[in-house]
Amino acid sequence: MERLKDLVSYLRGLGAVTIAYSAGIDSTVLLKASLEALGPSNLLAATFSHPGLPACDLKEAEAFCKREGIEWLPVEVNPLEQEVIRSNPKDRCYHCKRYLFQTLIEEAHKRGFTTLCDGTNFDDLQQFRPGLRALQALGVLSPLARFHFTKAEVRALAVQMNLPNAQKPSAACLMTRFPYGTTITPEGLSRVGQGEAFLRTLVDGPLRLRDHCPIARIEVAPPYMEAVFKKRDEIAAALKALGYNYVTLDLEGFRSGSMDEPTIVQSPLTEKPGAQEAVNGTMSLIKEER
User: Fold this and answer.
1) Residue 142 and residue 249 in one domain
2) Residues 53 and 164 in one domain
3) Whole-angstrom distance, CA of residue 53 vs CA of residue 50
4) Which of 152, 170, 260 lies closest to 208 in space, CA to CA?
5) Is 165 within 8 Å of 23 (Cβ atoms)?
């Protein structure tokens, strides 16, 4: 793929970089390409550790970096200490990303790394992602988006690179499981995290456990609904043990970002509140870099 060569060439021109590494497919592909471009001595992989992220991702990130000989930096943060994040407004992601990446930038600078890249892909620019504005404001580079790599193309690259997480389902911070305006607590994050971890033992495909406590709303892709229904008694018992009174299966199935739906009245993506601003701002930054 010619764009992969262009990506590697671009990364090589950066000299030395920190990769915000989540252990997801996007950031793993970017990290692997950066390793090819720069070598381990010019590369730092940094992974956030906070209550909204699964602990298993931290372990996977550490293991991959150890295998590849990449310096790994766990960055411990607690977004819930910030009232503007804890109160879960519609632009929570903006405030959270700004808080997280400002902390990461400071830690990377202590180690002599001044350029920070993240794994945002081109498809992400078309979605409601207030956090993109924060990345732009902080000067974070998004090489995969710059070279128009879509999610499907990133997955194909992961297979081509023989990455261990090439088939890993897309994931998102657990704070996205709560309706806007609902205060996010450590207990709530733990409840959702444990619930999703249990559901993943029964469902191989993408899923989300949306927390409308005392109601649990399960989202799975339609092909997996029958399997969930067959195990409804086991699932209901497990989720009720976590504190839910009612357990439901969403008939619309899995939708990434479904908590945004009640806030959106227009159908085109670019008419979502803040979406066009995020897309335009990020695309402008990409054009300026070129």
Assistant:
1) no
2) yes
3) 6
4) 170
5) yes
* Angle made by CA atoms 36, 41, 43, in degrees to the nearest 5: 65
The CA distance from 51 to 56, in Å, is: 12
Q: Global pTM?
A: 0.85
Same domain, 150 and 186: no
Domain that holds residue 282: 2-169+275-289
Token output for 30: 């970017």
Q: What are phi and psi of 10, to 5 degrees?
A: -60, -45
Same domain, 61 and 13: yes
User: Do residues 141 and 116 make contact, with C-beta atoms less than 8 angstroms apart?
Assistant: yes
Give the E-state strand segments of the chain in sequence order. Answer: 17-20, 43-49, 71-76, 116-117, 207-212, 215-220, 246-249
pLDDT, averaged per 10 consecutive residues of the chain (290 residues), comes to: 93 98 97 98 97 90 97 97 96 96 97 97 90 96 97 96 91 93 96 96 93 97 95 98 98 87 47 47 50
pLDDT number for residue 269? 36
3-state secondary structure of 93: helix
Torsions phi, psi for 250 (to 5 deg): -70, 120
Phi, psi (rounded to 5 degrees) for 204: -85, -25
Compute the distance between CA of residue 90 and CA of residue 67 in angstroms, rounded to an integer: 39
Work out how many domains the chain is built from and give that number.
Answer: 2
Identify whether residues 228 and 163 lie together within a single domain: no
- Strands 207-212 and 215-220: what pairing? antiparallel
Residue 114 near residue 262 (C-beta atoms within 8 A): no
Q: How high is the pLDDT of residue 268?
A: 37
Q: Give the per-residue pLDDT at 272.
A: 42
